[in-house]
Design a protein that fits this description.
With 271 residues, the chain is an alpha/beta fold. It has a single domain, classed as Vaccinia Virus protein VP39 (Rossmann fold, 3-Layer(aba) Sandwich). The chain is built from seven helices and seven strands. The chain has helices at 3-6, 23-46, 63-81, 106-124, 172-179, 191-215, 237-255, and strands spanning 49-57, 88-100, 131-137, 150-156, 216-225, 259-263, 266-270. The radius of gyration is 21 Å and the shape is globular. The structure holds S-adenosylmethionine (SAM).
Length: 271
């Protein structure tokens, strides 16, 4: 089945949900906070904005999903209170678009909105202004929004997902023969496997940038956070050790006659 139709983080708010298992991703957002603040200030400095379009791409569901909105509101309220030479209309309204793939748990996000709105009203008071939150399901590897409708685009811990398994590695037989049964780049992967992943990332990321270039206004800003690795070589232990362990565990389960189904952050198995 197509990655875009089946990929989703674990739904709901239970013990194994993404909502309860996304502390690393939360840390990444908090590390990027000063960069997000600077980017929003830059937007306000260069434009006279009455209605700011904001998109969070690959938002998933859980506490991290609404974190970005609180951050941006803080910047705007702070900018309103201390005149920093920013062009702020007293009525600046925020249009926030939460994007993820079609099977993301948007219902859990919607259910959490009343409590979120109440908390914001209590914490920010009348300074809050108008806030319109909506969902935009679909792949960020392609157009999602009308032309020139966005001022700020954010994506955290989501752009490392490719749109598909690289061609040539996608059929079970070809993938196994080329990549020696591994599910990602490992220390036994030949150069052609590394090239196939690099080309897929290049094609996906180019399409991402092309799509956003049409959707963003001039002077808009984008903050993208992706996990990096300490070495250029993706086959060093520091780069692929966790994938080696995961592949080993999955292959053991399969060799024991158990099947494995993956759904984002979690794997399930059965007899
Ligand atoms: C690890 S989660 C990160 C969620 C959130 N941004 C955070 O920091 O906690 C990655 C999210 O990216 C989404 N994603 C992956 N590929 C995508 C695509 N092509 N278009 C939209 N969302 C995508 C996944 O469904 C998943 O919800």
């Amino acid at each position: 089945m197509e990655v875009m139709q089946m990929l989703h983080m674990n739904k709901g708010v239970g013990e194994t949900s993404y909502a309860q298992n996304s502390k690393v991703q939360r840390k990444i957002i908090s590390i990027a906070k000063p960069i997000i603040h600077d980017a929003v200030q830059e937007i306000l400095r260069s434009n006279n904005i009455e209605s700011m379009g904001i998109a969070d791409l690959g938002c998933s569901s859980g506490p991290n999903t609404l974190l970005l909105i609180s951050e941006i509101i803080d910047v705007i309220i702070r900018a309103k209170s201390c005149s920093l030479g920013l062009h702020l209309s007293a009525t600046t309204e925020l249009r926030v678009f939460l994007n993820d793939l079609f099977s993301n748990d948007f219902n859990t996000i919607f259910m959490s909105l009343p409590a979120f709105y109440n908390k914001l009203k209590q914490e920010k008071g009348p300074e809050l202004g108008s806030l319109f939150i909506s969902a935009t399901p679909g792949s960020f590897y392609g157009r999602l929004f009308p032309a020139r409708s966005l001022h700020f685009v954010h994506a955290s811990s989501s752009l490392h997902w490719l749109s598909q398994v690289p061609p040539g590695l996608d059929s079970k037989a070809a993938g196994e023969a080329l990549n020696k049964g591994k599910i990602y780049i490992s220390k036994t992967s030949p150069q052609c496997v590394l090239d196939a992943y690099a080309l897929q990332f290049h094609n996906d990321f180019s399409l991402f940038l092309k799509s956003r270039a049409e959707e963003m206004v001039g002077g808009g800003r984008m903050v993208l956070s992706l996990m990096g690795r300490p070495s250029y070589d993706p086959t060093t232990p520091a780069s692929c050790y966790q994938w080696e362990l995961l592949a080993h565990a999955l292959m053991t389960l399969v060799s024991e006659g158990r099947y494995v189904r993956g759904n984002g952050n979690q794997m399930k198995w059965g007899d």
